[in-house]
Amino acid sequence: MMKDMSLTDHLTELRGRIIKIVIYLIVFFGLCYNFGDKLQDFLLMPLRSALGSEGKVVFIGLLDKVLTQFQLAFWCSIITSSPLWFRELWLFIRPGLYDNEIKIIRPFIFLGFTLFCLGVSFGYFIVFPFTFETILGFGVSNIEATISLKEYIVLSSKVLVFLGLLFQLPNIILILGLMGAITHQQLTGLRRYVINAFAVVSALITPPDPITMMALWVPLVLLYEIGLLLLKLMSPFIKKQTDMTI
After folding, report:
1. What's the confidence (pLDDT) of residue 67?
2. Which among 81, 90, 118, 189 could bridge 28 via Cys, Cβ 3.0 to 4.6 Å?
3. Residues lower than pLDDT 70 in the chain
4. Buried b (16+ CB within 10 A) or exposed e, 143-169
5. How far is CA 169 from CA 19, 53, 112, 211, 227, in A?
6. Secondary structure of residue 56 in the 3-state scheme
């Protein structure tokens, strides 16, 4: 049953959830910071593999190594604490839903965490090696590359978190579909515009080279198509749920 709450109750509830999320992040930040060296080595593996003997990773500023470890710990704390803050977000949303909506959405919380992990893994094991090998292979050969430790660690951490969030697209499509907010037919009709919009977004938020843009645009399109396919497969169940609600 949907729980009636005033605006003040909602704000109080939201504040409590945010405080818990911040506490989780602080605790996991401390844990990640303690393993900072191992995390940096792990994150540097795809780049070092692409560089081989033709480049090296350096730190330029006196405080670069310290600041890098702090920033890496922050982004890693977001990833590692994701099951807990996913749970807090669900607990905040749940009182505003009916019982049938809760039953529908609950499985997608686990799916959301799974997709987040898949997005991070996709970035580390597929996007990073492919992108690094391609970019470093351009232009004149036999030139040593010097990569800034701070810039690489910060950028790669942000990319992994972003891809984890990006992989929620099929989950979001399914949830909206099951709630009756969108239909498979509507999304099919919008496919051409969505794909073009993805191309614009990819061009705006990636470095100015076509390879990096494609590395973001292609997963976006595939995720949209996967969400579309899953929504089509779920259409009979959605219709049944709608009829039962009516």
Report:
1. 87
2. 81
3. 1-6, 96-98, 100-101, 104-105, 139-141, 207-208, 237-246
4. eeeebbbbebbbebbebbbebbbbbbb
5. 27, 39, 9, 22, 7
6. strand
Find all residues with CB under 8 Å of 230, minimum gap 6, and list them.
170, 173, 174
What confidence score (pLDDT) does residue 241 get?
58
Query: How far is 62 from 21, CA to CA, in rounded Å?
Result: 33
**pLDDT value, residue 23:** 95
User: H-helix or E-strand containing 129?
Assistant: helix 128-136
- Beta partners for 147? 57
> How far is residue 79's CA from residue 86's CA, in Å, rounded to a whole number?
11
Q: Which of 177, 184, 162, 191 is nearest to 238 (CA)?
A: 177
Q: Which residue has the tokens 């580390």?
A: 124
**Separation CA 110–CA 127 (nearest Å):** 24
The rounded distance, in Å, linking the Cα atoms of 157 and 213 is 18
Model-level pTM?
Answer: 0.76
- Tell me what pLDDT residue 52 has: 80
Give the pair of three-digit tokens for residue 131: 């992108």
C-alpha separations of 111 from 103, 120, 232, 234, 238 in Å: 14, 14, 18, 15, 18
- Gap between the Cα atoms of 151 and 50, Å rounded: 17
